[in-house]
Amino acid sequence: MKWLKNLGPGFLVTAAFIGPGTVTTASKAGAEFGFALVWALVFAVLATIVLQEMCARLGIVTRLGLGEAIRTTFKSPLAGGLTIALVILAIGVGNAAFETGNVIGAAAGLQSLTGIHQQVWAVVVGAGALLLLACGAYKLLERVLIVLVVLMSVVFLVTAVMVRPDVGQMLSGVIPRAPAGSLLTIVALIGTTVVPYNLFLHASAAGEKWPESVPLDQALKSARYDASISISIGGLITLAVMSTAAATFFGAAVRFENVGDMAGQLGPLFGSGAKYFFATGLLAAGLTSAITAPLAAAYAVAGVLGWKRDLRSVRLRLVWTSIVVIGSVLAALATKPVAAIVLAQAANGILLPVVAVFLLVVMNRRDLLGRHTNGLVANLLGGGVVLIATALGGFQLLTALGAFS
Q1: Which domain CATH number covers 124?
Q2: How far is CA 119 from CA 258, 277, 320, 338, in A?
Q3: Most buried residue among 20, 255, 271, 358 by CB atoms closer than 10 A?
């Protein structure tokens, strides 16, 4: 079991993106497009591994978080101010969107279990998240919820095996194509996997996992192994969700409106009890992410602005409180929960290139990283991720504005 000791921050990244957004978006992708969007998932997983490896390397080599590194990169007041404003905007808007999906997911799970409307539960979930964050009790609850999320992931993997998806169709889905009406789902699949705040989270966590007492080359090797294995497992879970939805719903002209609609994909394993298991898993995933996203936003903003990382400080409390409140209000206003969750993930996909570009700039600073700056291959891969994400996000944004109507 020695290999387990090398796993660390990568699993935090995976746990962060296996939330209501991933489950909902992957279910929608499988139900409406079968395996046609497997390529988008493969791209998202590879992009996550590429970018998160850079963040881990940054944290281990420099002992800085991504926010601190960005702040020290641009020296002039104008460039520095503009950079900070863009990063805070991306983190603020992105995390608020992500939080909206988290709260809706938890609230939708509660609605399915109790029959009380999702919009009422959205307010309760938001208030509960604020209370847990304020008193610090979330740490104990988080462990229980993570166990439930892991259990839900295992259930999807088992169900995916039981439904025996067509491997040929799955492999054919690796070839990029965009069926009519699929662009929003493609961008959402990327946005729910390559989560911008995870880039900040990973750099700081890697520096703590592998302290200076660990030989540098050994730490970097372990970090790469950790990121590759952990994120690949997350991708496998997402593929399992897509597979169960494709096997159950594709071709049946099903339109998801609520949790109950999606729960049917677990029918082969749970029968009539699928609704309750699915709702419980979505509740757990929503609550864990609803707590993690505001904290990550607070740490990211603190790093960029040079604030002390004290969650009890008034400034950081204002940051995570704002994220929770905005996310909860938007969740309470949402009348179509599934559509709102997918749209929230798409917002992250559109904002991703902003943070990724700054990461690439930082990773080419030889004065900061020495011989551990990005090589040609890393820059090409990172640049490719930025270009593809920008093209997809930009096209979706223009489509939403009616440019191609």
Answers
A1: 1.20.1740.10
A2: 12, 21, 21, 13
A3: 20
